[in-house]
Amino acid sequence: MAGEKSTALGQGAPGLLRGLALPAWLCGLAFAAALLAVFQYALRAHVPGELEPGGFTLQNFVAQAHPLYIGVFWDTLLLCAGTAILSLLAGYPLAWAILRTRSRLARSMILAIVITPLFLGEIVRTYGWIVVLGNSGFLNAALAWLGLGRAEMLFTTGGVLAALVHVTLPIVVIMLAAGLAHIEPELERAAQSLGATPARGFFTVTLPLSLPGILAAGTTAFAWTFSAFATPQLVGGGKVNMISNLVYQLGFASFNFPFAAALAVSGLALTAVSLAALSLVTRRVEQRL
Amino acid sequence: MSWWLRLLVLLLLAFIAMPALVACIVAFDARSILNFPPQAWSMRWFERAMTYPDFRDGAWNSLLVMISASVIATLLGAGAALALEKLEFRGKRTLEALVMAPLVVPHFVVGLGFLTLFAQSGLPRGLPLLVLCHVVLVLPFVVRSVWISLKSLDGRLEDAALSLGAPPSRVLRQVTLPLLLPGLAGGWLFAAILSFTEFSASLFVSTQRTQTLPVAMYNYVREYADPSIAALSAIWIVTTMLLILAADRWLGLSRVLGTEVPGGR
């Protein structure tokens, strides 16, 4: 049901509509001012013991060329990439099941379980992972019960990765399912009727057709993971750090807000470059199809 | 579906549900330290979660911020969406970019930005700062929701009212707004949920006095190891699931999320 577009209302009362948009302009400008404040702080000197920053300097960016910070940037990139890949691997079968399960009840159940975490917020979800991964938590109790001993899981990269995948999985499944919904199951059946095995039908027909959806979902997962804060903060416990955690520590433990701002700016630049590279790949792939 | 695919899907669903389920079980543990499995059962952590002052104040702050931010964002977002859809004006692209940009900027950067902005301008870090921050963060979702409704709205209805002599302000009130109601309601609901669960930006811009419930929970987890947070999480999870069930019943989740199978219903 495509609506008939009408601009008559706008032509009849441009002043009215312009007035209605005014508060949104103010809100947008406040956001722009907040971002500018970060950029401005990034270029100011830190005066120990003072909250008010000093004169303009590039020192905050020069100081980032330290193995400690480069290591955290690298870890952040690896965690983003790892989370994106693992969420795609885990999300694809789920998206597939949502679309291809015949029972309507089963489909609704799968969808409900997948999207509920999306509405729980970072803190509740992350706390659940502390209880699951803790030294006397659920998984270690299960391991002990199976006679397999205990494993260190909380405050490890693997633990953080599992919790990060858990955060991005719902949105990845939704995006993959939206992409898969446009692919006719008949195409795969046609391939099978022509003698292809189900696996071959999947890998030569459905998977290539869903590639744009896969890349879009992967890009989103990458960007989402970069903005994760509570998950690495609590599950990483200071031993696994992402840029966001460093920014918080520098601000609220050292009160070095200029350096925190500079790290945030570098992080933004790094994600922007990564996302640009990903979108280049996406465009190449779409041209091939 | 083959059996191994079914098994894989079941395992993945278990992975998704596990943290919430485990937290709900631990909430009833009688001991004051996290230790799975519980040996004795008790409701004491629910009592503590409901009476702990920081949680009560936090819940109150969260409610205030959620209601203010979601209502303000809905009004602002509707105004912006109407202008963007119905009007050609200079700076249209700029307005769209400014309003949608918070989608791609991490919350911790937005929080840091508002914190430094307010510190430099000498403005107080009160609840209005939290509300402003939340409005900025949820605005894109409202604008998108209302914009989508506007695009599928039959413009001929407005034209008819205009040609019959109704002034534009009256057409807006009596024709456009009632037709937009589902989009407005969806946008408002989404804004309210996002505001209530927002954590990272709130941590940066709140103070001990203005901390929201997620911030209070975070501070508690860092200091204590007892299952109070598990009890609070259990209440939170059950409430959320009831809300989702209700939303699915009235709005149809698959339709909202765009995962509806053609002819599947």
From TrEMBL, chain A:
InterPro entries tied to this protein: MetI-like, MetI-like_sf
Compartmental location: Cell membrane
SUPFAM superfamilies: MetI-like
Residues annotated as domain ABC transmembrane type-1: 73-281
Transport among keywords: yes
Pfam families given in the database record: BPD_transp_1
Main location: membrane
Family note: Belongs to the binding-protein-dependent transport system permease family. CysTW subfamily.
Protein name: ABC transporter permease
Automatic annotation (TrEMBL), chain B:
SUPFAM superfamilies, A to Z: MetI-like (SSF161098)
Subcellular compartments: Cell inner membrane; Cell membrane
Recorded topology in the membrane: Multi-pass membrane protein
Keyword field contains Magnesium: no
Segments traversing the membrane: 63-85, 97-120, 126-147, 179-204, 224-247
CDD domains to which the protein is assigned, alphabetical: TM_PBP2
Keyword Chaperone: no
One matching Pfam family: BPD_transp_1
Domain ABC transmembrane type-1 intervals: 59-247
Keywords: Cell inner membrane, Cell membrane, Membrane, Transmembrane, Transmembrane helix, Transport
Family: Belongs to the binding-protein-dependent transport system permease family.
The protein, known as: ABC transporter permease subunit
